[in-house]
Structure formats: C-alpha cells, structure tokens
Amino acid sequence: MRPNGGGQPPRLRPRDRSICASDDALAAALARDLGAGFEALAYCWQDRIYAFALRMTGSPSDAEDLAQETLVRAWSALGDYAPDRVRALQIRSWLFQIAVNLGRNRARAMSRSVSVSLEAMEDHASPDERAYRELNLARLADGDPAGNPEEALERRQRLAELAARLLALPEPHRLALTLRHIEGLTYPEIALATGLPAGTVKSHASRGAAELRRAIEREQAREAYRVETEMK
Amino acid sequence: MMAQEHDQASSLVDARRLRNDLRSLGQTTAPRTVAESALARVGLADWFSSVETPLGLVYFSWNDTGLSFATREDDETVFREAARTSHGRALALAEPPEWLANAARAWLAGDDQAPLSFDLARLTPFERAVLMKTREIPHGEVRPYGWIAREIGNPRAVRAVGTALAHNPTPVFIPCHRVVRSDGQLGAYSMGGQQAKRTILRAEGVNLSRLESLASGGLRYVGSVSGDYYCYPTCHGVRDLGPDDLVAFRDETSARAAGRRPCETCRPPVALLAG
Asked: Residue B50: what pLDDT?
C-alpha cells in the first residue's frame, strides 16, 4: 500500500541527521508520520545494522541483504502497531531483535557451519582469504586520517584479523560480543534482542572476549618465536 | 618493574586495545542501497535507472504505478535532487523490470503503442489530461498547443496547456516535445530549450524545414492534391508526399471552402458555417 500523494508533510531529508542521535525523537517521528519517520529511521540505522550483519556473516552481500530485510520487516511490523506502541518503541533493541531473528533464520536455512580453525587462518591464509578480510574492512573509517600511514596500515591489518577471528567464534559468543562491544547495546537491551537471559548473554560475551584474547596471545607468541628463530 | 607486573600491565593495554578495536569494527558505512532499496521495497522511495537516447543520457524513476520522473542529465546527483523536488521521494538504483525496459526501448524506437504507465499523482487533473493527450501524438508528428486544448475540452486554455507541459515530470516518455506553436516557432522546452527540441524532433524524422516554410507562408494545413481531406503537415497521411503532390491551406475556413473535410486521424479544427 502506497502512501497518498500531495498534501503530505515534507519528508525528513537524509541531511537532518540530528534525529538519528535520539531513539525517542525517532519514535516520536514515527508516531507522528509513519512514512517520514521510517525514512529517517532507515537512513539513521542502515550503517549500524549493516555493520552488525557484516560482523556476524562475514559477507558484504549477505550483510546488505540482511540489513535491507531488517528494515523491510521493521516497516511491516510498524504497520500493525497502535500509535501508543510506536511512540513507546525502544528502537535499538527492537531493530536488533529483528536483525538477530533474521540472522538466525538465515543460518538455519543455510545450515552450514562456519567452523574455520583459528590456526589454519593465521598460518595458512590464502590470498583469497586475505582479500576477503580486506573486503570486510573496506568500508571501515580510517581512524585518524592525519596519523602515520604505517600505523594506519598496521591498524587496518589488525582490524581485518580481528574481524576474521570474530567469525571463527561460536555463534552465541560472536552474537553477544558483537552486540555488546561493537554495537554498544546494554545487557538488558541484548537480552531483549536475543531473547536470552541477561546473565547468559554476559557470560557469552566474556567467553567470546577471552577466546579472542587467547587467539591474539597465541599469535603474538608464535610471532615472537618466529622472530627469535630468524635471528639465530 | 617485575616480570609478572609487566605481563599484567601489557595484558591490560591489550584488553583496552581489543575493546577499542571492537568498537572500530562497528564504524562501518553501509552501501547506500541498504536504506534506499528497503524504502523502495515498501513503497516510500522509487527505483531509478538510465538509458541512452538521441539527446544523450536520460535518467528516469518509477514505482508500482509507473514512470514518475525523467530528465536528460549526466550527473546522477543532480538527477536525484531534481526527482526529489518533483515527487518528494528518495530513489534506489535498480535494473528496470522487463516490462518497463521493453516498453521504454520500444517507445524510444518509435513504437507509439509501447505500454508505458505513469505516476502523475502529484499533478492537477488538468495537467494529467494535457499530458495524457500529449501521449497520443504519434512519433514523428507534432500538434499545436491549441490542438491539445481543444481535444481535452478547453479550447481557450492554450496558455495553460503550455504551463502544464512545462510541469511534465517525464519528458521524452510523455512527448511534450511534439507540441509546437502554430506560427512555425517550435516553442518552449524545459529540458534543454529549443535546440534540444529541434534535435529530438529531427531524430524522429520531423520535416522541420517544411513546417517552417509553411508557417512563414501563413499556411496551417495541407492535403494531398487528389484527396478530400486536410491535415496537419506532419500527419502520417501526408508527411511523405512531395511538394508537387500537396496543396496547402491558410486555415480551416479556406480548407472547407475548397471542399475538404478534416482528417479523422490528426483531427484539425473544423470551420463553423457562417450565419
């Protein structure tokens, strides 16, 4: 069903980004005018939902599909809500709940296991795998543009490896870690988004972080050994 | 510093850096198509693409109702802004669906029956009537503004027809370039001025020099020497006739006096009987 023509209030232009900073302002805009509010929501949230999907799937094209689908489902859900419910929406946990569910559906449908061994990745990364990591990171902001180009390169490589290690984590740990430390949701928000108890989510996130730290330490030890051996 | 403390200190640094790095992984920009395609799929934005024409690159947008905007433009950003001003919606890049691609291609090749549909919701009923009537002017032919006015039942609204045509959201596909002045001047054309109008009419095979010489001689209609009718000079029934096979008339009164009837295809005005 298309919104009616002429006589509508002007659309929130994408440049009006101030609304993006406040979930309450967005919810109020949605309650006032669903079409204009949703357009603002789509522009405001596409980056974060895409980032979430990219960290979870490792595939830019899957992430695009997932992010788009999340927004389409959100619109569809909004159509069924009474205005009061729209006004009271907790946008963050609501949107990520949709994204998480869609991600789970996708994983079920594909029923393939993303079990890449960390060792295999670190030691034997093929040019393809490296390029794939590069691609994952292609959209990253460059940190400090005025900084040392060597540092910037080193940072990009470090982030690329981190993204790859994230993908190797068991899904529940990756999910909790991504929502907490990448997307910055609170544990209660993550509980709402995942349907899991906050305590469970907390333990998933800390286990995931511990696994990441162990993997980094292993790599550092291996690197130190390599350097030592070369010097002999 | 003792070895153990050093290890603890460095693992603290690593933990902080890990946290910062994770946060950085969240600073990713989505391709613009994420929001745009979602908006288009739910009907809040239109789709758009572009096509080469005799005039150059033409960008156009469409939705479930039909074509919503078109313009001769090389710069996608300029086009997006113009579309937003015209119909108020954002745009998402897409391959046109087959029905539209085929119809657009056919139309540009001169097929008047190409099944194009249009979204003219933001126009007034008068403007819609003018534009839909304009769609009836065949490829390679032109009509005066007065013809449109008469055909839609507002014979006096000649100026208003001009204004309505200037509001045509989809030039090229709604052929406002085929509406000209009766005095031989081509008239206005918002998408590139008179020069562009000449170019596109010439590309359609309109005999502009014949039109201009007839008009400068004060002659509005022509008919085949041996025939019973009078037509607009670009009417398909007469346009391919050589000058020796044609007879010309100043107006509908003199055509009627010569015993001629108005062509039923191009429908020039009928002279009313005196008295």
From this structure: 96
Give ipTM to 2 decimals: 0.82
Residues 6+ apart with CB under 8 A from A157: none
Full-model pTM = 0.84
- What pLDDT score does A116 carry? 46
Active-site pick, B176, B231, B263, B266 = B176
- The most distant pair of C-alpha atoms in chain A lies apart, rounded to whole Å, by 80
DSSP B272: P
Q: Structure tokens of A133?
A: 């990591």
Which residues in chain A have their CB less than 8 angstroms from residue B65's CB?
Answer: 2
Residue A152's SS3 state is helix
Q: Which of the 8 DSSP states describes residue B184?
A: S
**CA nearest to B91 within chain A:** A39
The type of residue at B256 is R
Residues of B within 8 A of A46 (CB-CB) are 30, 32, 34-35, 38
- Nearest CA distance, A13 vs chain B (angstrom): 9
**What sign does the CA torsion over B186, B189, B193, B198 have?**
negative
Please name which of B231, B236, B144, B155 lies closest in space to residue B184, comparing C-alpha atoms. B144
Q: Is the confidence at residue B158, as pLDDT, over 50?
A: yes
* Nearest of B157, B30, B2 to residue A42 by alpha carbon: B30
List CB contacts (< 8 A) between A55 and chain B.
25-26
Between the CA of residue A207 and those of A203, A212, B238, what are the distances in Å? 6, 9, 85
CA B171/CA B176 separation, integer angstroms: 6
Residue B196 CA: distances (Å) to CA of A172, B76, B191: 62, 20, 7
The partner residues of B71 in beta bridges, in order of sequence, read B59
